[in-house]
């Protein structure tokens, strides 16, 4: 239907505007024929009449009978005629269909698929590094399992704090892409150098004789601290492997995921990221076991561990390069979500200002409590379990082979939990999901400690199952670790990362660096300090077991309280963000109505359908 503009008989558009067109008033001339018109949208006024600019089937209609001073028009969808260049854009509204594959938008898949592949590679590497680091430091000459608490407390924690301070500085001067590469490339280079340079030269660069002399002077109780100096390159590998979990997994990967996903996408896909990641656990566990058994086939005099280490570090370097490529692809091809524009802009802060800012936030403190509580809780159980594991499997070959089986079982259990976790998030929400991990850790931890405390009275019953009390403790501890880690990967980590999304960019970047890099090893070091204090006070780790169980109970209760507090704050932030986004969308959707000007005798314009 063609629009007809009239001004109470004073001005009319003829039926054939190509042949005849009256000069409009100055007011209309200013609106439609100004050399620099005010562009409000996408209708085109060309010599063939008033048509819509694009081919959308959507009809735009502005009609108000009450106010006769409004410019009123109705336009059918039509293609713009190529002949006439008189048209000026006045109004635009378009809607494009979204392509989907298996019910998921293509734009979402461009983010989710590479993120899942990246998580696969990162955790594949982490499993190899985690299983290898214990074998290196525990089975090395002049070392034992006693080195682990000292490493976590006096080496790992200071290096983690140092990295956080450096990362905070770099985050103020580097772009996100440059920051990512500046962090991950040194990791890749170190692990490659360790396998091919540092380990083959370990007999030359480790001060074995000097450490032996100090041990004779100071006594065997200083075996752990002296072992750090004795096998310093192995300890450096241990710390770098620990930092891979804190830095690459928590800061780099989840920081990228939080940057390019929305909360709705996170609820749907964050738990599923772990599906591919735990397939990586399964395969990497098989990889570790394969290279552990490979040493049996080598002849005498051959350092089988050196050959295995070179092969595994080559895989780690290759996976690291794949991670870099996927990060590049995501930054160049994955679409970024629309964020609320009303977030407060934070000024650049120094290191101390950043720490004060983070500590002043209740939200960040609750997040830190979750991470520290997990670290302490899992460490209280895990170190006790590893002491039993070392007693049951004293040789490096048996120890590493068992850890390969353990990683595979963890991957299978976590894969199953990932399938269940999406139902938990959809059905019960963030709060319930955040409380499952501490509850699982508490229940399984009670079972493990109970078996250690009452192992002797239960020996006849355990013997009927073909097990010794020690082997039963190893298996129950393994189950405890498997269930706890599967709950962490499928529920705890997604919950923690979702909590960062509503925060502003400055709090998100510096908060993640402080919480994930410092609080994670702080929790582990805190557990190690508690164990050291218990051992010195009660004489042995076994004598400390009842008290460690009590400490575990207190820590888990604090964990549950922080999760409840954070649930309330997270829900409030989500509502605030959704309200701001709705207000922004409402503001963008407002259609400006052009009021006719009464200039040079022109009256109101009426619209009649022709």
Question: Would you kindly provide a written description of the structure presented here, covering whatever features stand out?
Answer:
It is globular, with a radius of gyration of 33 Å. Helix content is 69%, strand content 4%. Residues 1-96, 340-347 and 593-610 have low confidence and may be disordered. It is built from 17 helices and eight strands. Helix 4 (176-198) runs antiparallel to helix 8, helix 12 runs antiparallel to helix 15 (469-500) and helix 13 (396-453) packs across helix 15 (469-500). The protein has helices spanning 26-32, 106-139, 147-173, 176-198, 202-205, 208-218, 223-230, 232-260, 263-294, 304-333, 351-359, 362-392, 396-453, 459-464, 469-500, 505-538, 541-588; strands at residues 3-6, 43-46, 49-52, 60-62, 73-75, 100-101, 104-105, 606-609. The strands form four sheets. A two-stranded antiparallel ribbon has the order 1-8. It has a two-stranded antiparallel sheet with strand order 2-3. It is mainly α and 610 residues long. Strand 6 and strand 7 (104-105) form a beta hairpin.
How would you sum up this structure in a few lines?
Helices cover 69% and strands 4% of the residues. It is built from 17 helices and 8 strands. The longest helix is centred in the last third of the chain and has 58 residues, at 396-453.
């Amino acid at each position: 239907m063609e629009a007809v503009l009239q001004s109470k008989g004073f001005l009319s558009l003829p039926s054939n505007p190509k042949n005849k067109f009256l000069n409009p008033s100055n007011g209309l001339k200013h609106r439609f024929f100004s050399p620099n018109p005010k562009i409000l949208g996408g209708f085109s006024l060309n010599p063939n009449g008033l048509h819509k600019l694009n081919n959308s089937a959507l009809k735009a209609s502005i009609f108000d009978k009450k106010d006769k001073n409004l410019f009123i028009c109705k336009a059918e969808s039509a293609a713009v005629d190529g002949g006439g260049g008189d048209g000026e854009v006045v109004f635009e509204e378009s809607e494009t269909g979204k392509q989907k594959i298996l019910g998921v938008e293509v734009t979402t898949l461009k983010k989710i698929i590479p993120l899942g592949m990246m998580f696969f590679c990162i955790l594949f590497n982490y499993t190899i590094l985690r299983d290898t680091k214990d074998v290196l430091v525990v089975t090395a000459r002049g070392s034992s399992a006693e080195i682990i608490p000292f490493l976590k407390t006096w080496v790992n924690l200071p290096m983690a704090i140092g990295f956080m301070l450096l990362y905070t500085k770099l985050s103020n001067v580097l772009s996100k892409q440059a920051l990512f590469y500046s962090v991950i490339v040194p990791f890749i280079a170190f692990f490659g150098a360790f396998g091919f340079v540092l380990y083959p030269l370990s007999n030359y660069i480790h001060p074995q004789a000097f450490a032996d002399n100090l041990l004779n002077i100071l006594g065997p109780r200083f075996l752990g601290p002296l072992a750090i100096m004795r096998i310093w390159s192995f300890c450096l590998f241990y710390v770098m492997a620990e930092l891979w979990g804190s830095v690459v997994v928590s800061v780099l990967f989840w920081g990228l995921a939080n940057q390019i996903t929305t909360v709705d996408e996170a609820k749907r896909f964050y738990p599923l990221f772990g599906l591919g990641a735990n397939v990586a656990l399964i395969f990497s566990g098989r990889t570790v076991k394969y290279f552990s058994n490979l040493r049996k086939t080598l002849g005498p005099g051959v350092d089988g561990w050196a050959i295995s280490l070179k092969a595994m570090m080559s895989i780690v370097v290759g996976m690291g390069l794949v991670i870099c490529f996927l990060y590049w692809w995501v930054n160049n091809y994955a679409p970024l979500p629309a964020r609320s524009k009303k977030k407060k802009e934070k000024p650049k802060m120094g290191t101390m200002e950043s720490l004060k800012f983070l500590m002043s936030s209740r939200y960040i403190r609750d997040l830190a409590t979750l991470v520290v509580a997990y670290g302490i809780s899992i460490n209280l159980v895990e170190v006790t379990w590893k002491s039993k594991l070392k007693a049951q499997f004293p040789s490096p070959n048996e120890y590493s082979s068992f850890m390969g089986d353990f990683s595979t079982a963890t991957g299978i259990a976590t894969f199953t939990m990932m399938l269940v976790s999406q139902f938990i998030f959809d059905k019960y929400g963030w709060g319930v999901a955040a409380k499952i991990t501490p509850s699982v850790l508490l229940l399984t931890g009670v079972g493990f400690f109970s078996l250690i405390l009452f192992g002797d009275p239960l020996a006849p019953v355990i013997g009927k199952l073909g097990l010794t009390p020690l082997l039963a403790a190893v298996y129950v501890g393994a189950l405890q670790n498997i269930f706890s880690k599967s709950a962490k990967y499928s529920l705890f980590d997604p919950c923690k990362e979702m909590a960062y999304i509503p925060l502003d960019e400055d709090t998100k970047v510096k908060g993640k660096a402080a919480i994930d890099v410092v609080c994670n090893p702080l929790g582990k070091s805190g557990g190690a300090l508690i164990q050291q204090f218990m051992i010195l006070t009660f004489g042995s780790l076994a004598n400390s077991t009842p008290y460690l169980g009590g400490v575990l109970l207190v820590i888990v209760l604090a964990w549950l309280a922080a999760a409840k507090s954070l649930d309330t704050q997270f829900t409030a932030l989500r509502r605030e963000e959704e309200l701001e986004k709705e207000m922004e969308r409402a503001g963008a959707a407002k259609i400006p109505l052009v009021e006719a000007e009464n200039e040079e005798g022109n009256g109101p314009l009426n619209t009649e359908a022709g």
